[in-house]
């Protein structure tokens, strides 16, 4: 059974950056598990809901069939459109229907690196928004920033666009171009940014030694929570333990999330004992707790955590657990607020539905979704700071550990 936290679709889009947001693979009810762990519904029997007149749907279908000027209509397209409308009616940006081709692309992107711009996107307040550009990838190199509102893609408006539609328009072959028209917070005018697509394959964990006054610190960067993240972090933890580091600056900025089980394993490296790391709230009083494993290599070292509005999903779980359990200070800016779980169900025609089935709570009971995490020490980074290579947030975090 595997759950993915993902950032802002968490699909956000693994279709753009190779990770995802809040997906659930497992066994529950009338399903069977195939070799790759997908959940496939084999039987679904429900009665007609009370007070719902389905005859209106069939009446409309019949009118189209009899009177539409370009008969015969594409019946498969009509069915998929009806299902999409059904899911869209939930007004949940993370719940979506995918036709067979979209489902195929999604599952392929889950398996490895691909070509695109290297940014996670989501819908926030009905506006297509950059959650986080990945470090060193085309989106960041072109100047995209967390929080940028995408108002046009190649000159076409994004009003009422779905995440899947946006992904199809933005992704593409290495070497090709896409132009995003963005509106940045506090800016008076929109700005066009041309991005040359590239191969998206980013190392998820890196670390280096830094020094403030006479104190040596490990600066640990986690860019995402993918399948190799725990292994890379475990290796880095061994190297940090062999170093002279007296503390750790944990950088989760612009980390859009990833697998939930990886987030639990990563948190377990910092927290001793079997502590509740995150709680899934399914509604109707049903909750499930996830605990750390007790294998805490780095628990004895003091930690300061860097966050910003590009920190989402699994990175919010890690940051929230460290603050609630270890009283670690969070430094930077408020996080994105992606705290919901999506369940992926594949249908018999190879289409699929991603549906929000739960929300995440950090150990204190705080709901991450839409609210995010506020930093204990707020430090804003200006465009001028970034252009000049000044990292005031890291400097503040290091001061806490010297």
Structure in words:
By secondary structure, the chain is α+β, with helices and mostly antiparallel strands. It has three domains: 2-43 and 53-107, no CATH class; 113-200, PDZ domain (Pdz3 Domain, Roll); 205-339 and 360-401, 2-enoyl-CoA Hydratase, Chain A, domain 1, CATH 3.90.226. The chain is built from eleven helices and 23 strands. It has helices spanning 14-17, 55-67, 75-88, 100-109, 138-142, 163-170, 229-241, 260-268, 314-326, 383-387, 392-401; strands at 2-4, 23-25, 31-33, 39-41, 96-98, 114-116, 119-124, 127-133, 149-153, 156-157, 177-183, 191-196, 198-200, 205-212, 215-222, 248-251, 276-283, 286-291, 303-307, 329-332, 340-346, 352-361, 377-378. Strands 1, 2, 5, 17, 18, 21 and 22 form a seven-stranded mixed beta sheet that branches. The protein has a six-stranded mixed beta sheet with strand order 14-15-16-19-20-23, sandwiched between helices. A four-stranded antiparallel beta sheet has the order 10-9-11-12. The longest helix has 14 residues, at 75-88. The protein is globular and about 80 Å long.
**CATH H-tier superfamily of the largest domain:** 2-enoyl-CoA Hydratase, Chain A, domain 1
CATH class of the largest domain: Alpha Beta
Integer count of domains: 3
Strand content: 25-35%
Counting DSSP E segments of at least 2 residues, the number of strands comes to 23
Number of helices: 11
Instruction: Provide the CATH topology of the largest domain.
Output: 2-enoyl-CoA Hydratase, Chain A, domain 1
Shape call: globular
Question: Averaged pLDDT, please?
Answer: 84
Low-confidence residue ranges: 1-44
Structural class: alpha+beta
Give the termini distance in whole angstroms. 42 Å
């Amino acid at each position: 059974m595997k759950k993915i936290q993902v950032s802002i679709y968490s699909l956000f889009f693994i279709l753009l950056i190779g990770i995802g947001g809040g997906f659930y693979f497992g066994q529950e009810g009338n399903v069977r598990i195939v070799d790759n762990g997908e959940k496939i519904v084999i039987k679904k029997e429900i009665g007609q809901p009370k007070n719902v007149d389905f005859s209106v749907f069939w009446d409309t279908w019949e009118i189209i069939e009899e009177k539409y000027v370009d008969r015969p209509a594409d019946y498969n397209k009509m069915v998929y459109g009806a299902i999409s409308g059904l899911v869209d009616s939930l007004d949940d940006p993370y719940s979506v229907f995918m036709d067979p081709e979209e489902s195929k692309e999604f599952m392929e992107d889950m398996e490895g690196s691909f070509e695109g711009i290297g940014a996670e996107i989501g819908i926030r307040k009905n506006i297509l928004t950059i959650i986080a550009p990945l470090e060193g990838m085309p989106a960041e190199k072109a100047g995209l920033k967390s929080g940028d509102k995408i108002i046009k893609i190649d000159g076409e408006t994004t009003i009422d666009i779905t995440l899947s539609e946006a992904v199809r328009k933005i992704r593409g072959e290495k070497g090709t171009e896409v132009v995003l028209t963005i509106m940045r917070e506090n800016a008076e005018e929109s700005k066009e940014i041309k991005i040359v697509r590239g191969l998206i394959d980013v190392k998820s964990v890196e670390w280096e030694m830094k020094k403030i006054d006479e104190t040596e610190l490990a600066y640990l960067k986690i860019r995402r929570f993918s399948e190799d993240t725990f292994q890379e972090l475990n290796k880095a933890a061994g190297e940090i333990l062999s170093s002279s580091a007296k503390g750790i600056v944990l950088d989760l900025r612009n980390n859009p999330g990833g697998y939930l089980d990886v987030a639990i394993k990563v948190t377990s490296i910092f927290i001793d004992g079997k502590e509740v790391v995150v709680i899934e709230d399914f509604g109707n009083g049903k909750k499930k707790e996830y605990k750390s494993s007790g294998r805490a290599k780095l628990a004895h070292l003091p930690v300061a955590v860097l966050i910003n509005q590009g920190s989402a999903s699994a990175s919010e779980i890690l940051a929230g657990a460290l603050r609630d359990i270890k009283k670690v200070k969070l430094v930077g800016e408020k996080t994105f607020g992606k705290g919901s779980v999506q369940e992926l169900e594949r249908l018999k025609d190879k289409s699929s539905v991603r549906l929000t089935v739960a929300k995440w709570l950090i150990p204190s009971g705080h709901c991450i979704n839409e609210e995010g995490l506020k930093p204990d020490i707020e430090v804003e980074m200006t465009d001028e700071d970034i252009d000049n290579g000044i990292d005031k947030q890291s400097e503040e975090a290091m001061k806490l550990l010297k």
